């Protein structure tokens, strides 16, 4: 047809079915391409060879963005000097600290930490700790931890001492990528000299323990293409393991939700509602309870819409009396370079108020200023 005449001969033409139409948007958002025709049936796209390089499935599915990006013209020494001045003498210039840390990527902050030690023979973190306190201290320290270390540290603290913060275990282990999980497991061992699986076994039990151990393997299928036949079969199996029988076959839920890729799970969840006349989240609510219910639901929510999962967690960290500051800090920091832009969008859609508005009314002082600077308001 006529539009093809406009495309250079060395470009590649791709036709996308309606079932994959979401991919079209992601390609448009993520890489250079020219949309040629847009029929009622599907979309036709032409991509240059260079685009095809960046168009492998991982690139296509990662159409998310953080609120924090690496600062251009970055100078670690200059930043170290600013932080030193901010803490020298009587009182602390918190605003100067906020301006630096909220406008640098995690990698850049680690370089500032190294430069500080080289220039002044002092540990930046120790200096910051002596100047700050409370939530502001927790937030600043989180920003200076490498992301993998911060996840491992959060898991260790969730299982340390009396009681276990199961929601933290779920939030981290059920939402991270394979590579992130493997890095966390390794860091947990090297930094704390402990085996994460042993700690999980000591602190949890039953089906919840088994789900978390499955998550720790970091072996979820990462093939991004969807097998609709398999989605149909898995939906049927989940129905027969739960709603379709007396009692529940928990191992079937564990096996499918712990091993299938997130795009594959999304297709299964969508098929399930046709098979069961009920959505999978409500079936999980009827068949399970407590931590294992929360863990399975977290996996399903991540498959459907990861930013929405985190938006909901943020909302409940601030809703009602008091604030769960650890959760607020952890999610804002860990998602700040991944998908905080999308989390903010989902938050507004879901709760008819912005994330910044809720943070403003729930926090105060420099802690509030720094959170808002990271969120990008």
From TrEMBL:
Gene3D superfamilies per the UniProt record, alphabetical: Annexin (1.10.220.10)
Any one annotated GO CC term: nucleus
Keyword Calcium: yes
GO MF annotations, alphabetized: calcium channel activity; calcium ion binding; calcium-dependent phospholipid binding; calcium-dependent protein binding; integrin binding; phosphatidylserine binding
Endpoints of the signal sequence: none
Domain of life: Eukaryota
InterPro entries from the UniProt entry: Annexin (IPR001464), Annexin_repeat (IPR018502), Annexin_repeat_CS (IPR018252), Annexin_sf (IPR037104)
Domain notes: A pair of annexin repeats may form one binding site for calcium and phospholipid.
Cited function: Calcium/phospholipid-binding protein which promotes membrane fusion and is involved in exocytosis.
Name this polypeptide is given: Annexin
Organism: Chelonoidis abingdonii
Underlying gene: ANXA7
């Amino acid at each position: 047809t006529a539009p093809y005449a406009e495309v250079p001969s060395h470009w590649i033409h791709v036709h996308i079915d309606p079932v994959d139409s979401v991919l079209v948007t992601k390609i448009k958002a993520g890489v250079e391409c020219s949309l040629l025709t847009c029929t009622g049936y599907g979309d036709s796209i032409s991509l240059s060879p260079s685009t095809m390089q960046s168009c492998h499935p991982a690139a296509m599915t990662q159409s998310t963005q953080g609120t924090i990006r690496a600062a251009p013209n970055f100078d670690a020494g200059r930043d170290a000097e600013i932080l030193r001045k901010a803490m020298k003498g009587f009182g602390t210039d918190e605003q100067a600290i906020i301006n630096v840390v909220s406008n640098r990527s995690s990698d850049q902050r680690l370089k500032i930490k190294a430069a500080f030690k080289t220039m002044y023979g002092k540990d930046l973190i120790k200096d910051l700790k002596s100047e700050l306190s409370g939530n502001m201290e927790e937030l600043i320290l989180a920003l200076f931890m490498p992301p993998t270390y911060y996840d491992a540290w959060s898991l260790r603290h969730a299982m340390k001492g009396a009681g276990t913060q199961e929601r933290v275990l779920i939030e981290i282990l059920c939402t991270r990528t394979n590579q992130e999980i493997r890095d966390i497991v390794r860091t947990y061992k090297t930094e704390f000299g402990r085996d994460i699986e042993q700690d999980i076994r000591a602190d949890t039990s039953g089906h919840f323990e088994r789900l978390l151990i499955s998550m720790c393997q970091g072996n979820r299928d990462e093939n991004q293409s969807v097998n609709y036949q398999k989605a149909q079969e898995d939906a049927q199996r989940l129905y027969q393991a739960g709603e379709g029988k007396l009692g529940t076959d928990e191992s079937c839920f564990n096996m499918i939700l712990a091993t299938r890729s997130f795009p594959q799970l999304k297709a299964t969840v969508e098929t399930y509602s046709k098979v069961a006349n009920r959505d999978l989240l409500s079936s999980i609510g009827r068949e399970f309870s407590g931590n294992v219910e929360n863990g399975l639901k977290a996996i399903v929510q991540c498959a459907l819409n990861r930013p929405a999962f985190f938006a909901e967690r943020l909302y409940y960290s601030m809703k009602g009396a008091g604030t769960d500051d650890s959760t607020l800090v952890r999610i804002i920091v860990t998602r700040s370079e991944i998908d905080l832009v999308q989390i903010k969008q989902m938050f507004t859609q879901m709760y008819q108020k912005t994330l910044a508005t809720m943070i403003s009314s729930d926090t105060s002082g420099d802690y509030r200023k720094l959170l808002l600077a990271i969120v990008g308001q």
